Amino acid sequence: MKAAFALFLSALSRLMLPVMAAEIPVKDGLLLHLDGVRQPALRSAAELPSLANGQPLDRWLDSSSGTLQAVQPWAGGRPLFRADDAEAFLRFDGKDDFLALSGPRRRLRAVTVFVLAAPRGNAGGFPGLFASAVAGQNDYTSGLNLDLGPNATPDLSVLNVESAGSLGASNFLQPGRNPAAVLAFGGFHVLTVRSDVGPKGNQVFLDGSWLGDRPRTESTLGLDEIVVGGRIYSNDPAELSHAQGSFQGDIAAVVVYGRALTDPEREKVEQSLSARIPALNALASGSRGHALETLPDAPLVQMLVPGFTVEELPVALRNQNNIRYRHDGKLVALGYDGTVHLVTDTDGDGREDKATVFWDKSTLRGPIGMALLPKNDPRGDGVLVASKGKVSLILDRDRDGVAEEEIIVATGWKEIPQNVDAIGLAVDPRDGSIYFGLGTANYANGYLIDAATGRSQFDLASDRGTIQRVSADFSKRETVCTGIRFTCALAFNREGELFASEQEGATWLPNGNPFDELLQIVPGRHYGFPPRHPKHLPQVIDEPAVFEYGPQHQSTVGMIFNEGVNGGPSFGPANWAGDALLCGESRGKLYRTKLVKRPEGYVAQNQIIACLGMLTIDACVSPKGDLLIACHSGPPDWGTGPAGAGKIFRLHYAGRDLPQPVCAWAAAPDEFRIAFDRPLKDSEWAGAREKTRIEAGRHVSAGDRYEVIRPGYQAVRDQMTAPRRWVDVHGLALSADRRTLVLRVPRQTESVNYAVTLPTPAAWQSMGGIVQKPEIDLALSLNGIQATLGSGSEPARVVLPHPSLPVAR
Hints:
This protein has 809 residues and is mostly beta strands. It has seven helices and 55 strands.
């Protein structure tokens, strides 16, 4: 009986989920709500024949009132109904499919229309997604139309919106009008038109991003007739207006309001529709795809590897941009508001709990970049800071814990409109010279093209977009390299070579730093923002990054090398020593990037070791070998700003005797391997196969389900809606030496990323601190070099991560 009741509840939940998913958060002024996912239930309530997947749809029932219907009496013009347990949409063939609704006479001054749709082609002739008109009149003179324009296009590069009082075709996706000027056909998008009388009367949005507006003169919009999947017009005086311009693609929902929604209201509706896009894309692809899942109860900090405790420091500070330990073991914290604190542990429990002001003279604007004077520096205890318009030395000459003086180390460059310009700072341990970055002159116009002449004003001799070096005595400043966008952090590794974290720039300049980067700074090089151009910048060669952090828009900000402080240990396992530790600010990531130096340059291998639910700004190793992470509150980018409340977390390596995953790779198309740094116990992995999950997809990364903050760029939305699929785990076994997990999977051939989630053995759990999900997350791909070792009848076949044997080792 209990089993039968459980099955009933499970079935009921599957029936209820689509209805809940289709709820519209704004009810005021709602005139029409056509939704594919609601059709089975609405048809049942109306005592209409049931609707099967793949069946032509004769009528689309309105969900808002239950009385309106968009119908198609002719069988040949009916779109196909596509559905699964989670979603549904209608597929229009682009030839003669459409649905029409004739209602009462209705004239409105303002409307807001949302269409959740996936255009799949454009044969030209104004293929329409939505149109309304006064009965017997054309949509573009008496109502409103949303279509793909007059000419055939190979991609989604035209969105035309016309209306009464706003005549003539106008492409809201034309290049230069918005950052997402051309989109590939096939993916679902939320298209929004808000129309009212005024100079910005018709406004168009794509996936919540404003595309543009156009004026609308005094007029009313007719909604006597509505067509979904087509247009309503006739330019032949001898015939009445009629439906034509059939849409090729899928439409999941149409929502119409009889008023102009406010921006907060519009955003609520767009967000509710956008949340359905991953499931719709999976349904449309016909694969075993699924939506990107985000855990509702994700820890504020989740380690993706075992053996760590996570604690929040019990100290209240505003958002901090940089943290470093100085020679006496005190933590120096540089606030976004320009205040510098000394933070100390008063009770000896290993957690800093008291902050005192070191500097609060309000002289630092947008400070990002800090370094400390060494012990016994004759000038006193000092903090070097890069900020808007200058680099400063904040000096405590008498070493009483309060700075008295600001010394200007470097200044004199022309400031840019952004709140930051001098960013990232490091001191060369060999000679004491100071390095800092100067942000690019114009991130949205990298070549500084003059609008009147079309000529580039970019000057390689300018100090903008460069790394600068200042001599130890502050007497000389020189340019080290060019092609820099915004290097938020600089650091020297144990080899004495300079590295920088660099910001993605392709959103604003095509091919301009497509990803966030780790750069090795070599004098005289050009680092690709703006990139080489045959006309505007032909005299440079773009230096590649040592590593690129994807998918796009990670915002690598804080960066250090994992070295001991004041003679203490480095952070984490011994093989992590010397690795670069980078903070992904806008998506809450902590990266560990291992670097191997070769004569031809550095080679990098990367691992995500933690996911955070806050903006991850900077990190530093403590004298005891812990890692501190400074986080901002608020959404990307840069959250609640200088006055917002921040947090500092401490990561402690408590499980030093536990095995650590060292490397994950594909040993064959049907075999994934995960190596550990010591032998594993068979008993701890008994039954692990059933709990192991593998996810595959172009934008899949380890720990994606813990990613709870994301920037609102179109590229990120596209990543979230890209197809994902689960990979079956046919077997899990230990290698002969018990140091490697061997996963048997179906043969894989896709050039995508794979994320493996392993259950953490029970004996490895309960480290204390913030409760962690008992899972280990690792990423791998099919990349590698197939090699044969030895000779004879049975040579060993292996997959190497790099063609160079020393690098692979």
